[in-house]
Every structure is written in structure tokens, then in C-alpha cells.
Records
---
Amino acid sequence: MSVLSIADVWKEYGEHVVLEGISLEIAERSFVALVGPSGCGKSTFLKMLLSEERPSRGSILLDGAPLAAEPEAGRGVVFQRYSVFPHLTALGNVMLGLEIGASRFWGKLWGARRRAAAEEARALLEAVGLAEATDKYPAQLSGGMQQRLALAQALATKPRVLLLDEPFGALDPGIRAEIHQLMKRLWHERPLTVVMVTHDMSEAFTLATRVIAFERRRNEPSDGGRYGATITQDIPVWPPRVAGQVTGLFESPGRDDPAPVAGTSRDDLALQGVRA
Ligand SMILES: Nc1ncnc2c1ncn2[C@@H]1O[C@H](COP(=O)(O)OP(=O)(O)O)[C@@H](O)[C@H]1O
Ligand SMILES: [Mg+2]
């Protein structure tokens, strides 16, 4: 059963066709990596899945029903940078995610519900390896820790679909390998379907169950933007990964992962929680 059904979606800005004829069925609990050259419309596509943008033509169904007109709690999102609020602590950022999930008016929680939310937020911070950083502000966290926090905040709304736009692209290779392990664990343990944009092919094959490439098939200067990008490759990752089926603590580390990191920690105290 598809979580997302995308049928002949086009996106145009004025005369400029960004995407054309995108049709895609995304299975429940899959992890789709979306790759393609810069400017080919990957972020635009994610924004349509989030309802931040609307298709010019075509339809997008979530669980068989048209997408809600506004972004909503069922679709969590993490961008490459700046998706956490700098003036809130780590706990405050995750609490905000919970409040957004709990109230359609984005209202604050009070009393017993607020205490329960704080407990849940602490558990989420622990799940992403940030138990030690509960009261820190984003500026006091390393890049890797900020992205862990952004993941915790997005997971707070219990999204069925997690949308990731180059979430690990700005991280150093060692830190990125660690956060890949975390990402795999979260996907295995939680009822998530993931759509992740990346320009790193090895990241795509490290994490995904399926790799999709967007590209402009016709791209002559004389085309003047009349043709958009479309799906040019759709590759099932082999051997298949199945959500929830882990060999050992993590899925066969080393099979296709970046080389293991020498030593531990570096600037990322988050590690402790992940390896434990
Ligand atoms: N709001 C907008 N108005 C006009 N053009 C846009 C808008 N958003 C994106 N574009 C154009 O759409 C194209 C695809 O952008 P984007 O989705 O950000 O690409 P990618 O994420 O693959 O690098 C670019 O040419 C960009 O200039
Ligand atoms: Mg982009």
C-alpha cells in the first residue's frame, strides 16, 4: 500500500517548467533517496509533499486522500540548516514540536499534559543522543548535534512521513557516518516512511531502500526552461533493506557504510547515546 501516490505532477513558475510528469508510488516504511543535479527541482518536490508548494498539474495523495492544503503534523521535515529555533533550548525546541503535534492551534500545553510532554521530549532527546544537551541552546551545539535536535523536533509530531532536504550535507564525514547510524536506527524503530534529498550518492545507498534520480532529459540552452526535470532512474537498493529487520544492533555495519570512524566523540557528545 502506498503512503504517497504522486501522479503526473508538474511544477511551473511562470514560463519556467521545473518538474514535468513526475509519477511515483512510495510504499509504507520505505526510505526513498532523491538525487539529481543542483537546481533540478528536488527541494521543490519536497515542498510539494509538505504542502508548502502546490503542483501546477497532477495529484499527490497521502494515504489515498489529497494532501491537506497546509503543512501538518503528519509530515515532519528537516532541512540542511536552521530548522531549529535559536532562542529555545534543546528541550524547548522538542517541546515546541510536541505542542505543534498536540494542538491544531499550536497552543501551549499546561499542567499535567505539559509535564508529560516534557518527559516525552527528554525521551526523544535521549533517543537522538542528546540527553546531555537538554538545556543547551542550538548555538552551543555542534553541527551534528543541531541536526540530531532537528530530527528530534521533527519526530515529536510523530510524522508518518519524514521529509529530509540534504539534512547531513553540511556535516564532516565522521560526524555524518555517526548520524547515518542514528538515522537507520530511527527508521527501523519508528513507523516512518522517509523521503530524503541528498547530493551524495554514497549516502543515498547507505540509507535508502530505493534511489530515485531527477534529471532534465532535454536541456539545450535554446529550450529556454520549457522542459522540466523528470524521473530518469528508479533503483531498488540491493540487498533489500526492510524496516524493522535489523541484523545485530545496527544493520550490518560496514556493508556499504562509509569507513568506521576512528575513536569516539570528537565534538559530538551525542555519540554516547547512540552507541550505548
Ligand atoms: N518560488 C520560486 N519561484 C521561482 N522559481 C523557483 C522558486 N523556487 C524554486 N524555483 C526554481 O526552481 C528550480 C529548482 O529549484 P530547487 O527545487 O531548489 O532545486 P534543487 O533542490 O534540486 O537544487 C530552480 O531553477 C529554482 O530557481
Ligand atoms: Mg535543494
---
Amino acid sequence: MAEKQQPSGLEVHELSDDPLECWEEVKKTQPVQEKVEPMPLDTPIYPDKVRFVVVSDTEGKTWPLRRKIPPGDVLLHCGDMSWDGDPNEIIRMNDDLGNAQDHPFKICIAGNHDLTFDPHFWWPRIGWQTCGDRWGLDVEACHEWIRKDYGCEQMHELLSEHGNANWTYLFDSATEVYGIKIYGSPWQPIFGWWAFNERRGDRILYKWDKIPADTDILMTHGPPLGFCDETRGKDRAGCAELLTTIQKRVKPKYHCFGHIHEAYGQMTDGQTTFINAATCNLDRKPDNPPVIFDMPLPPGKTKEEYVEEKKKADVLKKEAWEKTKQERRKKWAEQRAAGTYRCYTH
Ligand SMILES: [Zn+2]
């Protein structure tokens, strides 16, 4: 069978549509599949090491976490910040985690529950009508709120350094902190009727093909096949193409994710440490502790110097975003007047 060439040159696994079967094959070729013991949360923080603190799947329940999240240099949130994308949940998360804890850098991605972050899910009305029925979200109020100014980016602004908080929101994009490269992507193999769904096989591999080969820490919402992805029903939820991308091409030091709450924990394949940091358990209780790890600070600059640089960069980002917002408001007002307005943005 002729295969379409993927940008990365990687091949889709022939069993990738059936993760359980696929893992039975793939695991035979795995050199290492070992559990990793968690680092104690009270481990001291050193000037020459960057402390990462990872949470995921807080699903709007961040209030009890205020005192449970240890300090660190970087806080990572791997998606499902909210239960249904309600802006108020994001505002609450900010109040609980964004301001109350002292992490100079905070990086997040969205997950399947963060419905309003996914313009492809939200704007075709089918998405929000269905989610309103199923999850009790006041979709009309939410829709009004989102469309009044600048689309789904209004959600990002709630979090980001150009808006109200100091999270860096990644959406198939990268950032660098303390000289360490981090890439984030929200997609998961199709999972019910939720946001950021993508078909297994070549379609999802196109998303993973965007991950730069020099990524040190990869953040996705869902797990790769075989590592911290086993469901309560002993099924495998992970993505074969994500595992291939990690093992054959990107080889990050750490891969952080969540999504499958019951598979919380850490494993290694001898090359990458896989961290399922799902904070909520299957009962939606935020009882799983945050996960921490350290990476060496590259020589050349102190942590304090990096933090000072960030503060300056944030001011510029804010100014640039204000300009974009004003331009967009103007354009949309003109479109509304002309009857050509379609509120659809990335
Ligand atoms: Zn999820």
C-alpha cells in the first residue's frame, strides 16, 4: 500500500487505530519500560538547576491546590484547566495558581475540556450547542463573551503575559525558559465529542511533525502509546504516532501530559521521562500530587537574569497585543457594518 509521505518522513504504524493491539507489537521493541519514582516535593531548589513543577487536568478545581503546589522556577499545566471552557473557571485558576504561587514562569496548553480555546470546535455551532447540552455550560453567555472582542484569543488573554496573568499559552508552538526549549500542543486522538480531537494515523502525525527536533521538554495533553496511558478498563489511550515522534525524531528529556487520570505516574524508556501529571483522579478530586523535576541551568546567565529579561519582554508583548486588539476591533466593526462579519480567528 502506497503511504503518503509525512513531512517528518516518519511512518504511520499500521495498527495505530487499535492502540491495544498496536502496543502489543510496539512493546516488543522497547528497550526499557520502567517506572520512575517521584522526586520528593520538599527537595531543595539549587541556583544551578531549574525546578519544574507539573500539574494537569485540574478541571476547575484549583482552590484546594493553592497550598499543595510547591515553589519552583517554572509551573507547567498540561491542559484541562477547566471543566467546560467557562471563562470564569480560567479566571479562578489564575487567582488560585497564577497569583498565589511564586513561579516566575508559567506555561500552559489547553486540553479537550477547554472547549472555548479551540476555535474549530467552538465556532461551528454544532460544537457549542452539543457541549451546552452535555456539560451544562451556559453557551449563549459564553459565546457572547468570547465574540464581543476578539474570539478564542480572548481566552488566551485571560492567562497570558500580554493580558491579565503571566502564563505563556502554547498552541502548537514553542517557548524558551532559562535556555531550555519547551513545545506545547493540545491535540489528542479523537476522544468523545470534545475539543482538540484529531484522527489517529497521518492526521495526528501532521500535528506532531511540527514539534522541533531540539525540544527539551514536550507538553501535550494526551499520553503517548504505552507510557502512563492505561485506562481503568485496561485499554490503551495513548497515541502511537506521538511515541514514534518522541523516540525516533525529537527525543526530549521530558514529556509531560495528563488526560488519562487513572494513569497518573512517571515512566522512562531510557531516553525520555514520561510524566502523566493528571491532578484530578477518576472521581474528579484534585488529589494526585504535583510532579517536580530539575534540569541543569545552562551556563552563562543566572536565573535572576532570565527573570529580569522576561519582565522586560512582557511589557513589549502587552503593547503589541493592545495594538492587535485595537486593529481587530476596528476591522470587525467595519465588517459588522458591511454585513460581512464572521467571528472566526485563531
Ligand atoms: Zn483530557
